[in-house]
Amino acid sequence: MRDLKILLLQSDIIWHSPDKNIAKIDDFLSKQRLEADLFLLPEMFTTGFTMKPEGISENFKGDAVEAMIKWSKSTGAYVAGTVPFFDNGFHYNRLLLVSSSGVASFYDKRHLFSIAGEDKIYTSGSKKLIFDIFGWKVAFFICYDLRFPVWIRNRDNDFDVAVFLANWPYARREHWNALLRARAIENLSYVVGVNRVGIDGNGIVYSGDSQVINFKGDILLDCGDVEKIFSIELSYKELASYRESFPAWLDADKFMLV
To the nearest whole number, what is the mean pLDDT of the chain? Predict the structure, then answer.
C-alpha cells in the first residue's frame, strides 16, 4: 500500500465572506505547487462557524463545490471541507468530499453544538462517511463529534485515518489536544485534526493546533497557530505493523448504535 500524502489548510476564515475565503485559498495554492492524495480544509471554511446561514448556504452547484473541483484538479487530491448547506428545505453543516469530477460523497454533522444553538439551525446527520482513498479507509467527522467516542469507534478496523474538521475555540484547546490523542490511541488509527486560527464575527478566538497523530498517540505534525498549508505523508506499513503487534481491537466490545 502506498503512503498517503495529506495537505492541511489552517486558515483565518473571513466572516460570512465565501468569495473572499475562496479567493484566499486560491492565493495560497497559486504561490506553491502542491500535490497530494487528500487536501483538508477547516469546518465552514467559506463563512466561519455561523448560526445565520441564510444567503450564504451552499448547494451542489454552488461556488464552494466549483472551487473544490478546481483545487482537486490543481493538487490531484480529494478535497474535503464543511460548509453551511441547504438541501430539500433543511440546513446542514455538511462535509463535502470532492474530486476533480465533482462531489464524491458527503457527511452531515452528527453531533450539533447545542450550547451555541447549532441544533436549532441545522439538521443532524445519521450516516457515517468512510471513503476509500487510494486503498486507505478514511473516516470523516466534524468538530464536536470529537467528544463522542461511541460514534467514532473503529470497529474491526473499519478505518485507517479519522479526520476531524473543526472550528474549535482557544478556550477549550486543551480538550482538543487531549481528545485527538485519545481517539487515535483507542481506535488504533491515524487522526488528523484541522482547525482554524483568528477571531470570528462573534469575537471567538481560535488558536489552530491542527495536528496529525499516529496510532500510538505520537504527534507527527503540530501546526501551532500559523496560517498556512501543511503537508505530511502517512505510512500504511507502520500502521499495519502496529495493529499486528498490538491487536487490542480484537478485544473491543461489540455494540449497536440505536
Answer: 97
